[in-house]
Amino acid sequence: MRKLYSSIRGTCDFSPLQASSFYSITHRTREIFRIFGYQEIILPLLEEAGVFIRGVGKNTDIVEKQLFGVARRQGEAKSDVVLRPEGTAQVVRYYLQNSLYKQSSFHKFFYIGPMFRGERPQKGRLRQFHHIGAEAIGSDSIYLDAELISLALHILDEVGVAKKELRINTLGCSSDKEKFSKELQKIFASKKGKLCQDCQKRAALNPLRILDCKQAQCRKLIESLHLGEARVCAQCKRQFHDLLSLLSALNIQYIYEPYLVRGLDYYTHSVFEITSKELGSQDALGAGGRYNSLIKELGGPDVAAAGFALGIERILLALGELKHPETIRAFIAVADSTLMPDALAILQKIRAKGISSEMDYCDRSLKAQLRYAQKLGARFVVIVGQEEAKDNCVTLKDMEESFQEKLSLDQAIAKIHNRGGN
Ligand code: HAM
Are residues 136 and 237 in the same domain? Predict the structure, then answer.
């Protein structure tokens, strides 16, 4: 018996129905980005590991546990080339490699494509998934933060995700983050035993991450600490309150989430997540925030930036049952197989008009062809018989109105074109 292969755990195949939804989401999204003034970039799936080690942070889960290394040559064990786990650090690499700050002080980019993380797969958590990402580089204005948040929500609205919640927090500036990290290190040093295993390691290396750990024992400890937003400096606090007022003025509802930290180290100031109750434990449809130190961290000038990414597979999960993709509009049926050349010529003529159409390639009887046309959802069947071929015409059958008539091919095409329906 030959082995039957299955897809790799944590990857997913898109059926025609899912692929059709995928493309209608990305098609609508591209149009929205155009309206908001973002330009599309397409960057490689392969990237040097250092971009993420330095960009995302060496003590983050993404870098510590989830990078997929790619051997450059067969048999090579170790490699500094990885499949990209996210887009932000990569976009900054692109921005710096091309010295884009010399061309203009402000850039807005978007990208749509696959990301890879060696996570433990579960519902909504994959090893290969797709991001719709936006990055705006060159401004620390809270108006830009507000634009990005409203853009992310607008995309979700437009692709049909009605129910969602925006959760937002501020991490303060780099020195606020550093001070708070040290404070937390001290607090957790004496309470390590009360933390989950992952957080026991984080206590020394990345204590901020403990704040949004989902484990019950960690949640209990964190809530008992009553940390609030007092940890950020007066200026950052004012900035954050101004951003919240801006969101209210835009009629955007939010939930202030003082323990929202995010799993990537580059964030400073505002961070946000958009969640959906439809998703279960992996409830984030998308997330983002400011990363004012990342460009400098990756060797560039001191330039502020912010962005977000939405997960397409999670959007599809939130949409639930998918609508059937567009069906075939016309089917060319032949009364006997000697008429196949005529059918093919007719099919070509109809397709040239941009009408989705199909014919039989499996030697079915006329009756079976009509049944097959119905299965495909065809509104019209163009029947080609000996008599029609002799009279240089076709029989056009309207499946919806159970009506048929003999017409010239041009008349039939005009009717297929004009009559309402699918
Ligand atoms: P992230 O939170 O890691 O952020 O990913 C953004 C979104 O991608 C998540 O909210 C989720 O919808 C989806 N996602 C993440 N991991 C998985 C997975 N394993 N399986 C399925 N979906 C997943 C970032 O990556 C940042 N680069 C976002 C950003 C852009 N911040 C600023 N600019």
Answer: yes
294 within a domain of the structure (yes/no):
yes
Residue 387 exposed, middle or buried by CB count within 10 Å (0-12, 13-18, 19+): exposed
Ligand 1 site residues, Cβ closer than 6 angstroms: 86-88, 117, 119, 124-126, 129, 131, 133, 135, 264, 284-289, 307-309, 311, 313-314
Q: What separation in Å is there between the alpha carbon of 287 and the centre of ligand 1?
A: 6
The predicted structure's pLDDT at residue 422: 42
pLDDT tens per residue, range 238-250 = 999 999 999 999 9
Instruction: State how far the Cα of 50 lies from the Cα of 357, in Å rounded to an integer.
Output: 51
Report the pLDDT averaged over residues 73-84: 81
Task: Print the domain residue range for 92.
Answer: 16-173+232-319
Q: pTM of the predicted model, to two decimals?
A: 0.91
Average pLDDT estimate for 140-146? 98
Say whether both 263 and 366 belong to one domain.
no
Rounded to an integer, what distance in angstroms lies between the CA atom of residue 82 and that of residue 133? 19
Are 247 and 335 contained in the same domain? Answer: no
Q: What is the DSSP letter of 192?
A: G
Q: For position 300, which CATH number holds?
A: 3.30.930.10
d(CA 322, ligand 1 centre) in Å: 23
Query: Of the candidates 319, 345, 369, which is a domain's last residue?
Result: 319
